[in-house]
Protein 1
Amino acid sequence: LQYHSDFSAEKAEVFDITADMTRQYKGMQEELMRKISSLEATINTQRDELELSRLAHEETKKAKDQVIALKDAEIAEQKQKMEEMAIEFGEMLKETLDKMGERIEVTSNTWENETGAPIMN
């Protein structure tokens, strides 16, 4: 009879301990699931932010490339204008040189006709 009551007491104590351990296990499992859920939400948020950052980076890169292309086109246009101006200036200098040569020749001829002496020997 004593053994029977000791056995029943031991059985009740083991049951209480098992119930307590099961409750602790379930609590820890629920806490772990909450943490997993929270971390998954954080991962999803950061993935979204990363994707937005990538898109913003791509847009910035495209805008930069467009600006560079426009500036390159502008530089090419300015180089072409400078080339045209250099050619025009060269033609103007040649015309001026030709006119000065003509005037020197006319002056020389006039001098020779008036004085009979050549300007240069």
Protein 2
Amino acid sequence: MDDLQTSEEAAFVAEDVNNIIKESIDSVLLNATYNHNKVGQWTSMVVEQSMKRLTALNKPFKYVVTCVIMQKNGAGLHTASSCFWDNATDGSRTVRWENKTMYCIATVFGLAI
């Protein structure tokens, strides 16, 4: 039982990470209108809040968090990532968020230590 509990405690739980990303984005951008002068601040805040909440989980992971904010103006944006890791322990999660004026795409990579 202890081994099962230990493995669950050390697992990358995509649903938990997804919720952390969504809540971090909402706390920064929920009532915001796109403003080019604030994008740098917003992306930093999303990344920092996500990282703070992820590390508060106290799981044996190294995290990488990225955030892109783009004005809604009809332009296309394509992203991709590739990872070489252990599928049993490591994971990633990407959240696409939008309002009337902008898109936000945030990704978390969790790598077991």
Protein 3
Amino acid sequence: PARLATPPPKTSDGDPEQVHLIGGYPDEVTVVFMTHLPRNSTVELRRSSEVNSTVVFSGIGHVYSFMQNPSVWNYYHDDLYPFPDVKIKNCGPNEYTNPDCIYTSGVIHTVKLTGLQANTRYN
């Protein structure tokens, strides 16, 4: 199978975090990562043996939001057990205009890398 190198360490809020690799067909992998700031959903890839040959793959980025409603949570299976944070404790359908009750993710990027070769190291 193709092997990808370790990503560089985080240096700013626009850099990728939570990088996940998802296998697909033998010649592809999907990269999913999150950034706090908007940026292009791209991944640069090159074979370790070819320093001057980089391929750029483009994907998509999404942000999602939802209203937090702790009154319906099963507290026995929740990190916030036994009580949710005070800011969201009273959140529910009547608090839809309260910004403390709305969770918004960072930008979640999905990029599919195709045409990979087995037993090849990539950077």
Protein 4
Amino acid sequence: CTMSTMWGPGHALKGEDASYVERAVWVLDTIKTSMERFFLFGLMCFFVSSILVVWLLFNTRGSVIVTSCLSICLLWMYCKASKIAAVLLPKKQASGRFNFNRIANVGYLMGDASGSLRGNLSSSWASHI
């Protein structure tokens, strides 16, 4: 996860066009989902192994008490995570992709009458936006 957050923006910034940014966002989103699954799997393995060790090493009364405490903690964490996800997850996904080119010719926008950007450019292009 740490490596992907370091390499993802680097891939986006070093790319030649917007497709690199789009690919970096897609890869980071995909990796985020798998990292969340791995984290939850590790958390469940921790709780299961802790409960198993308690049942192997302690008497029945102590094992029931510790298992109850760990189960309550696990249930509490699930409830809190559900509330956090309900508040923070977006209701609607938005993408930054353009489906069309908003500027047909940059030369016309920047004030070059021929549209080739070979003549003198002026700052009057800002009034065309």
